[in-house]
Design goal:
The chain contains 5 helices and 5 strands, in the order βααβββαβαα. By secondary structure, it is α+β, with helices and mostly antiparallel strands. It has one domain (about 5-120). The strands form 2 sheets. Strands 1-2-5 form a 3-stranded mixed sheet. This is DUF1284 domain-containing protein.
């Protein structure tokens, strides 16, 4: 089974994804990724552009235009979930850690509340 490379904060994005995005191409791609991770593959958590970023308009030659901000999001997700950079983990376990340590704990807004998509994650 394929190992999906995922930015840690994208776990939160996938939790709230509901068909909105930068473009129809982005929305279609995000829906495909969400469907794939629902099959519980192993994900490799890393803080650089990933499969989701591949069709994002903020991806400029493999670097996010908001790199400093998204690096902060990634580091905080890893810290709150007690995971290390480059951790390999089954998606469902990662999803459970996100839910318990960030979402149910009421810490999502502290992690990524300044994101342009914040309004859809409430």
């Amino acid at each position: 089974m394929k190992i999906y490379e995922i930015r840690p904060h994208h776990g939160l994005c996938l939790s709230f994804f509901g068909g909105k995005g930068y473009s129809s191409e982005f929305v279609k791609h995000m829906a495909e990724i969400k469907a794939e991770v629902s099959k519980n593959p192993t994900v490799l958590l890393h803080s650089r552009t990933d499969e989701i970023c591949s069709v994002c308009p903020h991806n400029k030659n493999g670097t996010c235009e908001s790199e400093e901000k998204v690096q902060r999001y990634d580091k905080e997700v890893l810290r709150l979930c007690s995971l290390d950079q480059k951790a390999e983990i089954e998606w469902k376990l990662f999803e459970q850690l996100l839910n318990e340590n960030i979402l149910v704990a009421g810490k999502r807004e502290a992690v990524c509340g300044d994101c342009e998509w914040n309004a859809i994650c409430k």
